[in-house]
Amino acid sequence: MRYHKIPDETIRRLPIYLRGLLFLSEAGQQSVSSRDLADFLGANPPQIRKDFSYFGDFGTRGVGYKVDTLARQIRKILKLDVVHKAALVGVGNLGSVVLAYQGFKVYGFDIAAAFDIDSKKIGRKISNITIENVSNLRTLKKRKIDIGIITVPRDAAQETAEALVNAGAKGILNFSPCYITVPKKVKVITIDIAMDLARLPYYMPSS
Ligand code: NAD
């Protein structure tokens, strides 16, 4: 099932709701009101109710939302109800940390392969993943890997994106600080901590 009319802003908030719901579920909580969920997430209740109304009203007046049902529904909308295999390219400082992080599994992501150009790194293991020569990228489709994670230096980002797309990637998480161009059918999300940091002082009180 596709949910055609969910705005991007809501889609952006759904993983945050999911993270909160998973935490509550782990703590043994079965239901939650939009107010309590809002307090817990630092969000506002009308926004949460509006967001949830896009995919049906699962709340019961006086009882709230069933935590597990809502989490399941959000997973389905985000297509996190299946395992997604990802490949990471560029196993340097950042790539090694991303590769070792176990927190992606909760959302159904399996970083199943890692690639580098440096012969000294090829063959080494991080978190049970053997670093492969970047020329092996063409094997992605056969291995059912359709997400690419780019952690190479900026000047290698575009060529890496192209190699990933040619190998069958349909989604790319780009950590390199640059804009990359890909065919329209491929979704790119760029993450840049420096950009977030760069707007932080603006909001800080002057001393
Ligand atoms: P690094 O130099 O430690 O690692 C880069 C790795 O990429 C190396 O192992 C290198 O051998 C490999 N590499 C280079 N060219 C390649 C190619 N064509 N194919 C495959 N592998 C290749 O760098 P780092 O500190 O890990 O940073 C990596 C990237 O992440 C940089 O673009 C950096 O600007 C970016 N970065 C982003 C954030 C963020 O907030 N998004 C934070 C830190 C770093």
Descriptive account of the structure:
This protein has 2 domains: 70 residues, Orthogonal Bundle (Arc Repressor Mutant, subunit A), CATH 1.10.10.10; 112 residues, Rossmann fold (3-Layer(aba) Sandwich), CATH 3.40.50. α1 packs antiparallel against α4 and α2 crosses α3. The longest helix has 19 residues. It is globular, with a radius of gyration of 20 Å. The strands form 2 sheets. A 7-stranded mixed sheet has the order 6-7-5-4-8-9-10. The protein has a 3-stranded antiparallel sheet with strand order 1-3-2. The chain has 207 residues and is an alpha/beta fold. β4, α5 and β5 form a beta-alpha-beta unit. Nicotinamide-adenine-dinucleotide (NAD) binds next to α5, β5 and α7.
Shape: globular
Average pLDDT, all residues: 93
Count up the helices.
7
Work out the radius of gyration.
Answer: 20 Å
Structural class: alpha/beta
- State the total count of DSSP E strands: 10
Based on the structure given, which CATH architecture of the largest domain is correct? 3-Layer(aba) Sandwich
Write the CATH fold name of the largest domain: Rossmann fold
CATH top-level class of the largest domain: Alpha Beta
* Low-pLDDT sequence parts: none
How far apart the termini lie comes to: 53 Å
User: How much helical structure, as a percent, in the residues?
Assistant: 25-40%
Strand order of the largest sheet: 6-7-5-4-8-9-10
Order of helices and strands: HEHHEEHEHEEEEHEEH
What kind of oligomer do you see? single chain
The unique ligands bound to this protein are: nicotinamide-adenine-dinucleotide
